[in-house]
Amino acid sequence: MTAEIIDGKAFAATVRAKVAEHVANLKEVHGITPGLAVVLVGEDPASQVYVRNKGKQTLEVGMNSFEHKLDADTPEADLLALIDQLNNDPAVHGILVQLPLPDHLNSDLVINSINPAKDADGFHISNVGLLGTGQKSMVPCTPLGCLMMLRDHLGSLSGKNAVVVGRSNIVGKPMANLLLKDSCTVTIAHSRTQDLPGVCRGADILVAAVGRPEMIKGDWVKPGATVIDVGINRIPAPEKGEGKHKLVGDVDFAGAAEIAGAITPVPGGVGPMTIACLLANTVTACCRANGLPEPEGLTA
Ligand code: NDP
């Protein structure tokens, strides 16, 4: 069997189009423009690229983008004061603090100082608790993007065996909670899991969020399974020339694509969905803040 390729780039474009439609409606009918504030502390090159892309895509869907760039040695009190200001700014509906933060800043304290209703990343402890108890919350963007692709591809997820490899707070755990909320039978695997290949072979839905290049082999995949590869790993690519690199996922794509029913590629799978879901979360937050119905198909 050759798997269907789930095109995350194309799907993200449809999500952004839906967001843009809602934004236009909010402006036209209600006179409200959703706004996303992104806070970057320091000069981490990867974070700078992410923040630039987020700002660009926010403007492209018609929302307001507020970028706050702070020096790497910004005192914690100054960052908390900025977040307090954004929490109280009615033009700001979503707030994102780009992680990782410099070592002298307490990430948990900073994230938990964001108003949970404006927590566009869904990392605030209140949102984690709400999601964990199956209540309405702000949902972390990457797992939300995976869920949207799974629903789009499979329809109902009810009763399916889902295996999530990885138990991080930003991907693995919220992914597992979302799948549970959609009535999957969920297994969370991690570095201490015994017989990981055997566990993966039981999965109708296999989500890989490990951070180890091509670790999950084709013969770990159940025939016909849907495979979502969250991993983004930069590895040397001598075939492209000396010193060149390429991006690969956590799944051995070529091997898995022979067995799976459907699979997301890397790049072009989960990656583009993450920012699209950040924009979706901001529109959702804006609608909730204004007592308006939430956009359909953009939330969990
Ligand atoms: P973390 O490093 O926080 O977590 C990795 C998880 O994988 C841990 O739970 C760890 O287990 C588990 N793990 C590590 N080695 C093994 C192994 N040999 N067997 C089984 N499990 C193992 O990573 P993240 O969740 O933050 O990210 C995972 C991947 O997803 C990365 O490649 C990252 O770049 C990518 N990513 C992609 C995003 C996107 O937009 N597409 C967004 C976020 C992340 P244990 O807990 O036991 O240590």
Topology-level CATH name of the largest domain = Rossmann fold
What is the overall number of helices? 10
- The stretches of 5 or more residues where confidence is low (pLDDT under 50) are none
Strand content: 15-25%
CATH class of the largest domain: Alpha Beta
Number of strands: 11
- Structural class, by secondary structure, is alpha/beta
Please give a structural write-up:
The mean pLDDT is 97. 45% of the residues are buried. This protein has a six-stranded parallel beta sheet. A three-stranded parallel beta sheet has the order 3-2-4, sandwiched between helices. Strands 9-10 form a two-stranded antiparallel ribbon. It has two domains: 30-117, Rossmann fold, CATH 3.40.50.10860; 141-272, NAD(P)-binding Rossmann-like Domain (Rossmann fold, 3-Layer(aba) Sandwich). A hairpin with an 8-residue loop joins strand 9 (233-236) and strand 10 (245-248). It is globular, with a radius of gyration of 19 Å. 40% of the residues lie in helices and 16% in strands. It is α/β, with parallel strands linked by helices and 300 residues long. Bound molecules: NADPH dihydro-nicotinamide-adenine-dinucleotide phosphate. The site of NADPH dihydro-nicotinamide-adenine-dinucleotide phosphate has 25 residues, from helix 10.
